[in-house]
Inverse folding.
């Protein structure tokens, strides 16, 4: 057991495990590595191969040991690097084999041709049984989480089946593929840092705008003030000084607050430019309206198009977007920009409230 | 309870003394001879212009359908029989006739070189760790 035994302190925190794509995949590890992986001290049932958190594996090997119980098979699988026990539960179809004569009477009825569900089910059961019932020397593919029971590692099969491999094509392909997987994935150290150090400025800003956008999607807020959403961005700020230098936190305290405000200001500017939010009135009291949830603006735009489409000038083609924009600015709010109007028009059209007659003309029927 | 892992070996390695007695191996080869009354079979393979033979003890896998001239894969333990050289006591004997032997050899070499590479790297990684 010369596998790198990891210091518990070095273990990546469980919060970050999901960032490693290998964590949610069935890792095609060699049995030797599965047996030697270190188990996590935080969460039993999670193992570490080369700092990659792993809990389910995918194995192909020869059955060299077999034990049958009422509910499960226990197969010892040898892939040429190690042997591991695989606990393979029998499913209900397999257990039914005790009374095979159950559907015997129905066979003759449907034998005249046509589809007989009973015979088909019987065929399926037989096929499944032949795939699940293996003898020593046969090839087994098994996927499932790794468990340690009685100090022995085993695989709790979530899927398992016999592999028909008369000319070893599957085994050879597997033997060629696994080293590549190791080189490209498993043996590369995982990158689980929550923020990349290089472009943290850019990424935190786009993260901030996305956070606010998600918030709008989940909560139907129509109006807000900056301090209402400020807390949403707090995690983006506090994670930065930690990664830079953990011991400078007291110094970073006041500047973190400034950073937060600056980030919020920039994010809101981007959202305004994109038309996601707008300020109906520019005053000391910074109130932002969420374009998508602003029913007043929707009604205003709809009314404008409805009224102006009746005018002779616009009757044929409908109103041009710039005409609508200037009308909205005159009648509703001076601060609505074109991006915001486009969002509104798109959503109105999705509701069939308005109809576009060209890419920039809208009308109401 | 579980047997040891049977590591792939080339037929020409079995008799060369590279594998110890009791070690588990898996070896491929063409069945050239089978004597059921003695439970003895012989696999053969060509390598470097020489024919190599592997003696197999087949008591545990009998009865099996023997096709002389077909490719077989054997899993078993190395045994030093009295007098007549190394023998593999088969646990598994599968007929794999039609196997692409060249590709299989390549796959075995590939797997070995991967493990070699990895041990090298681990050795490298271990050294600086010791130094600190």
């Amino acid at each position: 057991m010369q596998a790198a035994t990891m210091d518990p302190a070095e273990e990546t925190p469980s919060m970050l495990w999901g960032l490693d794509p290998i964590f949610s995949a069935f890792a095609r590890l060699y049995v030797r590595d599965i047996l030697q992986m270190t188990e996590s001290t935080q969460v039993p049932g999670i193992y570490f191969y080369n700092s990659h958190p792993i809990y389910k594996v995918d194995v192909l090997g020869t059955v060299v040991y077999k034990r049958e119980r009422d509910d499960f098979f226990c197969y010892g699988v040898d892939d040429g690097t190690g042997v591991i026990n695989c606990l393979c539960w029998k499913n209900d179809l397999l257990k039914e084999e005790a009374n095979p004569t159950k559907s015997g009477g129905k066979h003759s009825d449907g034998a005249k041709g046509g589809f007989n569900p009973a015979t088909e089910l019987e065929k399926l059961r037989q096929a499944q049984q032949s795939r699940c019932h293996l003898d020593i020397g046969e090839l087994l593919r098994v996927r499932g989480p790794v468990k340690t029971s009685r100090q022995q590692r085993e695989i709790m099969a979530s899927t398992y089946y016999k592999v028909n491999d008369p000319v070893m094509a599957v085994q050879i392909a597997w033997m060629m593929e696994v080293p590549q997987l190791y080189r490209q994935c498993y043996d590369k150290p995982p990158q689980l840092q929550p923020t990349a150090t290089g472009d943290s400025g850019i990424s935190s800003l786009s993260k901030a705008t996305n956070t606010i956008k998600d918030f709008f999607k989940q909560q139907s807020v129509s109006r807000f003030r900056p301090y209402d959403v400020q807390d949403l961005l707090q995690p983006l700020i506090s994670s930065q000084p930690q990664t830079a230098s953990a011991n400078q936190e007291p110094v970073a305290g006041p500047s973190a607050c400034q950073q937060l405000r600056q980030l919020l200001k920039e994010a809101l500017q981007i959202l305004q430019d994109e038309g996601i939010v707008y300020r109906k009135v520019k005053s000391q009291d910074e109130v932002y309206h969420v374009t998508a949830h602003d029913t007043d603006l929707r009604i205003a735009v709809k009314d404008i198009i409805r009224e102006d489409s009746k005018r002779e000038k616009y009757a044929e083609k409908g109103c041009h977007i710039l005409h609508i924009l200037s009308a909205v600015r005159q009648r509703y709010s001076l601060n609505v920009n074109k991006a915001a109007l486009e969002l509104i028009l798109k959503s109105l059209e999705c509701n069939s409230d308005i109809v576009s007659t060209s890419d920039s003309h809208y009308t109401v029927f | 309870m579980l047997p040891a892992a049977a590591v792939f070996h080339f037929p020409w390695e079995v008799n060369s003394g590279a594998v110890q007695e009791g070690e588990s191996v898996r070896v491929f080869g063409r069945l050239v001879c089978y004597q059921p009354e003695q439970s003895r079979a012989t696999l053969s393979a060509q390598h470097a212009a020489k024919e190599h033979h592997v003696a197999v003890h087949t008591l545990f896998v009998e009865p099996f359908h023997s096709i002389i001239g077909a490719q077989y894969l054997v899993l078993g333990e190395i045994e030093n029989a009295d007098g007549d050289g190394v023998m593999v006591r088969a646990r598994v004997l599968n007929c794999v006739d039609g196997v692409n032997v060249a590709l299989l050899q390549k796959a075995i070499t590939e797997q070995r070189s991967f493990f070699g590479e990895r041990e090298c790297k681990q050795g490298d990684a271990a050294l600086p760790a010791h130094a600190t």
Notes: Residues 102-107, 241-252 of chain A have pLDDT under 50 and may be disordered. Chain A touches chain B at residues 2, 4, 31-32, 62, 64-65, 76, 78-85, 136-137, 166-169, 171-172, 175-176, 178-179, 182-183, 187 (CB under 8 Å). The radius of gyration of chain A is 32 Å. The longest helix of chain A spans residues 249-274.
